[in-house]
Structure formats: C-alpha cells, structure tokens
Write a structure and sequence with these properties.
Shape: globular
Length: 483
C-alpha cells in the first residue's frame, strides 16, 4: 500500500517571537469569533469532518509509520471517535449555545435570569503521542464548537501524525483561528509562558503538574486529562470468558498504550485459575490464531519508541527479580519495539509494576477474597482514571461503584465509556481535572456567563436600600424569615 504520510520534513524551527506573533494574531481574531453566528462554527466542524473522511488513508499511514498501528485499529480508535465527536457537536450545537433560562426565587420576583455560554478566547491544546490524532482532534472539536481560536501542539514522539495535523490545519483554517505548532519540550515551554484563556493537556500526571504551575502564572483555566493505575475487578459471579475477552481487548489495543487501559487485575481467588486460562485463550484467538506467535500478527501494534520499550522491559525484568512470575507471554524483541501481551502473577505491591502507570501490554494479577479487601487495595492508591467491574451480581456492582472513587467506570466492559459522547470523560485527583467530550467539552472551552435582567422603577430590593431605618430592618427580617 502506498504510504502518503511517511515522508516528513525535519521539525520546523519556531522561535519564541514567531509563536508570540501567532498568539497575538489569534487574540485579535478571537474577538470576531465571539460575535459570529453559530452556523459559522458548524461550517468549520463540517469541513473538519469532510477532511477526515477524505484523508482516511493518510491518517492510517501516519499511525502505521509512527508505531505500526493496524489500519483497522486506527479506524476504530482514531477516526471513528473523532467523527462521532464532530457529528454529536453538529447535532447539538444550537441547543448548547442557546441561552439557558433559570428559575426566579421569590425574593427576586420581577427579574429574569439566564446563563449564556461565550468563548473563552485563545486556547492551547497539548496532545499526547499514544492516540495522537484523536486526542488532538477531540478537544479541538470542543474548542471550535465553543467558538475559540486554538494553537495545537502535537507530540514530537509521533512525527508523522504531527506533520499530518499541521497539513490539516493549513488546508482548513486561517492560522489566526487554528494553527498546529510542531516541536519538542522547548516549544511547549514557550507556549506555556503565554497567557492563554484555557489550556487542555493530555498526558502524564507529572507533566500535568508542570502545565498547571505554568497556567497558574496567568490564572488560566485548565483541563488535565492524565492517567494512573486503572484497576479491573473480577468477582466470582462474572462470566469469565466474556470478561477475559474484554480485558484482553482493553489491555492490548494500541499495545497497552492507552490511558484508560486496565493497569492491574484483581480477581477473586476462587476463579483466578479459570480466568487466567480464558485470558490465555483470548490472546491466542485475537493475536495468534495461526500459531505463528503474536509478533507475526498484523493486528498488534508496537511500543512507540526505544525509550518506552526499555522502560517496559525494565518493569518486566524488575518485577520478576522481585518474585513475580510470568504466566502468559513475556517475549520482548528490542529491534521491533515488540512486547508480547504478558500476564504476571504475584508482583510485589511495592514494585514499580504495581506503583507506576504501566502504559504497555503488561498486566499484573492480584487476588482477593472479599469485596472489602479489593476495595481497600484500590483505595490505598491514588484515584484511578477508570474502574472496571466484572460481576453478575447487581449488589456487588453497586458496592464497588459506590466505594471506589474513579474518573469513570464500566460494568462488564472496558474502555468504551471513553467513546460515549454523552458521558463526561475525565479523572479525579491525580488522574485529572475537568471533563471532556460532548456538552462537557463544550462547557470546558466556554465561559458560562450569568445574566440577571431587572425591571426599571420600583423593585423589591429597593425596599432594603440604605439608610437602614426601622422599616428597612423589618423588610430584611422578613427576607431572612420567609425567603
């Protein structure tokens, strides 16, 4: 297949003065966007959707070039969710942008009040490398729907996708409205010194703290989509084959390089052996049906670069040194940045494998005997981005959902809550701040302006104006007593 996205030029040199000029141009343009019709926003989103449809082969090729992502997986995890967000925004944008009336309390009779959303202004989107197309497009859709100008900074770790995003912006948008700035940490640092009206960052908690500190210098609002160790809990009432298939899919899609991938497995001690066997069989069905080894599979991606490969290989080696045993998988191949789907039993709770976000196809397994024990195990750690519960018992499902705080959850499924445009997506505590997708994403990039309209002439509140004589005191007393 011809690869239309493989040829890329060196990263363009963008100095600080050039970035500041881009920012000033967007600052000026943002005032005009504030006043434009909603139909103009919709037109931008339609252009974006059409471009994605027309450039599907180029998007597939860019992801294949950056880390051998299968075309079908690109369709499923990069293109489809991007189009879903666009279609959902187009369907609901008029309603989202319409002033929202609110009720009037008795004490304020005679007034009318509403909330109207207005663009925040100029926004910065810093996208990650693991889903480099979708996680740049998703917040961009929300920002455009809300009427903002945007500077998008893609990850330099996936240069083919970054170059494709730059081409997309150049073909579709005035740079005073949307521009893609390529570069490394130095470029991000320059961008973060600017007084943006909102920053949307997707990445690690460690870099999220850097972004938040930079935003604090200008009191800039932030959305931080971070990560953490998302647990999957399987109790003794679960359908084990079904659970195994969904866990393997959620863990191994994109070779485990997914912020909401199951990070560790807690399984009831009575069904551990059966579940492990079902996981073994699911890996075979998905990635090795011909018995040639997972490395030969065209359905399995690679680790994005040598650095992350070596990090994961080190986690695997260290865990085994500390007593964990490899139950499934364990094959690594440095020349291909390949790590086989790997299940580990008995990892030490204080090991890096159980303390750090894995972000790869390694899945440690722990057992529990009671739901309280499983709940305590999760809650002793930072709040997870996602919680996955596999159970046939509604009572058990309810108990776990009520007692384990998490950014989002699935019951008898993994990952799919991320794809639902009506569900707010985000973390809690260490796993993130703010919400994205659909209406929540629109609100993240909007200022909800409160408006109260009062009649002219005599009003109820005027009866309580100074001077505070006995009559006014009585009026205030009635207000406190009755309203």
């Amino acid at each position: 297949m011809e690869n239309p996205a493989v040829e890329i030029s060196a990263l363009p040199t963008v100095d600080e003065a050039a970035i500041q000029q881009l920012f000033r141009a967007q600052k000026g343009r943002s005032e005009a966007l504030r006043r434009e019709a909603i139909s103009e926003r919709s037109a931008r989103l339609r252009k974006l959707g059409n471009w994605i449809e027309q450039n599907r082969p180029a998007i597939q090729a860019a992801l294949q070039a950056d880390f051998r992502k299968p075309a079908e997986e690109t369709d499923l995890t990069e293109i489809w969710p991007s189009q879903i967000e666009i279609k959902h925004a187009l369907k609901h944008l008029q309603q989202w942008a319409k002033p929202r009336k609110v009720g009037t309390p008795m004490a304020l009779l005679g007034t009318k009040s509403w909330v109207q959303c207005e663009p925040k202004g100029v926004c910065l989107i810093i996208a990650p490398w693991n889903y480099p197309f979708y996680l740049a497009l998703d917040p961009l859709v929300s920002a455009l729907a809300a009427g903002n100008c945007c500077i998008v900074k893609p990850s330099e770790i996936t240069p083919h996708v970054a170059a494709l995003l730059r081409r997309m912006a150049e073909e579709l948008f005035d740079p005073a409205e949307v521009v893609v700035v390529e570069g490394d940490k130095k470029v991000a640092t320059v961008l973060l010194r600017l007084p943006f009206d909102h920053i949307f960052f997707t990445g690690s908690p460690a870099i999220g703290k850097v972004v938040m500190r930079a935003a604090a210098e200008h009191l800039t609002s932030v959305t931080l989509e971070l990560g953490g160790k998302s647990p999957v809990i399987v109790d003794e009432t679960a359908d084990l084959r079904d659970a195994a298939e969904k866990i393997v899919w959620g863990k191994c899609i994109n070779a485990g390089q997914t912020c909401v991938a199951p990070d560790y497995l807690l399984v009831h001690e009575n069904v551990k052996s059966d579940l492990v066997q079902h996981i073994r069989e699911a890996i075979h069905r998905f990635y090795d049906p011909a018995g040639e080894g997972v490395a030969a599979s065209a359905s399995y991606a690679r680790i994005v670069n040598k650095y992350h490969f070596e990090r994961l290989a080190s986690l695997l080696e260290e865990a085994q040194y500390q007593g964990a045993t490899v139950e499934i998988g364990g094959i690594v191949e440095a020349s291909q940045c390949f790590i086989e789907p790997t299940l580990l039993i008995g990892a030490a709770p204080n090991s890096r494998l159980m303390q750090e976000e894995i972000f790869g196809p390694l899945l440690p397994v722990q057992t529990f005997s009671t739901l309280m024990q499983a709940t305590s195990f999760v809650n002793e750690r930072p709040r997870p981005l996602a919680l996955y519960v596999f159970s046939g018992s509604r009572e058990n499902q309810k108990y776990l959902l009520q007692n384990i705080p998490a950014g989002g959850s699935c019951v008898n499924e993994t990952i799919l809550h991320l794809a639902h445009p009506e569900l707010p997506f985000g973390g809690i505590g260490n796993s993130g701040i703010g919400r994205a997708h659909g209406y929540s994403g629109f609100l993240a990039f909007s200022n909800e302006k409160s408006v109260l309209k009062q009649r002219t002439g005599q009003t109820g509140i005027k009866t309580m104006y100074p001077p505070y004589n006995e009559k006014v005191k009585r009026m205030i007393g009635w207000l406190l007593a009755w309203f």
